[in-house]
Specification:
Blueprint: E1 4-9, H1 16-30, E2 37-42, H2 48-53, E3 59-62, H3 79-83, E4 89-92, H4 95-100, H5 105-117, E5 121-126, H6 130-134, H7 138-149, E6 159-162, H8 176-190, E7 197-200, H9 208-212, E8 219-222, H10 229-236
Parallel strand pairs: 1-2, 1-8, 2-3, 3-4, 4-5, 5-6, 6-7, 7-8
Helix pairs in contact: 1-10, 7-8
The structure holds 1,3-dihydroxyacetonephosphate (13P).
């Protein structure tokens, strides 16, 4: 049985000291980890060695990765620099990268390829803005992103996260049933029956059980609620309840 993925994206939060304190307090709350779960902590680059030193109950992820292994790319990070630190996963194409740093589907595709070439499993983020949703273009936008981002990508070593932009950091969660529907469409469009697809956008301890009860949602990518120990531990320890509606 595929494990449920509980991934935290710390974004540009936590100093090294704060990361150390988080891990110390977090581990006792999630161990022993249930065998049906995979926890991934995606910290800032400066914390990755600290996260790796305590990895085991959780795996370590980065928040981006460049397509070259070295070169004149000021401010970027190479795949080998991450793998050397024990990093196994890398978020690619997060909407904040696309929005604030001009990341395009073409660069996302190059980053995905480089990640896979160096044994990093990429977590590709896709999702629509509020304007696109209101215009009825949610499905077509996501299909466009998938078609371009996943060109020549190995679908066996990939995680996709559906993150509607209007639900990120806003407290507006996508209704679990709707997230489930879109995630089903994503898996169908990619054409890979066992592709893990996560939901991201204002996940918190109050809505995690309802989200994880959906049959097509394989896990969550959590921003704000992954920064606080109790809150992320509650998410990791979600209660698997089957809903009938
Ligand atoms: O962007 C996200 C995870 O990558 C979601 O962020 P929030 O959980 O803060 O809405």
């Amino acid at each position: 049985m595929a494990r449920k993925v509980l991934a935290g994206n710390w974004k540009m939060h936590k100093t090294r000291g704060e990361a150390r304190a988080f891990v110390e307090a977090f581990l006792p709350l999630i161990e022993p980890l249930a065998a049906d779960r995979l926890v991934i902590l995606c910290g800032p680059y400066t914390c990755l060695d600290i996260l790796s030193a305590n990895a085991g109950p959780y795996a370590v992820g980065a928040q981006n990765v460049h397509w070259e292994n070295s070169g004149a790319y000021t401010g970027e990070i190479a795949p080998v620099m991450l793998t050397e630190l024990g990093v196994l996963y890398a978020i690619v194409g997060h909407s904040e990268r696309r929005q604030y740093f001009n990341e395009t589907d073409a660069t996302v595709n190059r980053r995905l390829k480089a990640a896979q070439a160096h044994d990093l499993t990429p977590i590709l983020c896709v999702g629509e803005s509020e304007a696109l949703r209101l215009a009825g273009q949610t499905e077509s936008h996501i299909r466009f992103q998938l078609d371009h981002d996943l060109k020549d990508i190995d679908l066996d070593r990939l995680i996709v996260a559906y993150e509607p932009i209007w639900a990120i950091g806003t407290g507006k969660t996508c209704a679990p049933v709707e997230a489930n529907r879109i995630i089903g469409l994503i898996r169908e469009h990619v054409g890979q029956a066992n592709l893990p697809v996560l939901y991201g956008g204002s996940c918190n301890p109050g809505n995690i059980d309802a989200i994880m009860a959906q049959d097509k949602i394989d896990g969550v990518l959590v921003g704000g609620a992954s920064l606080e120990v109790q809150s992320f531990a509650r998410i990791v320890n979600f209660e698997a309840v089957a809903v009938t509606s």
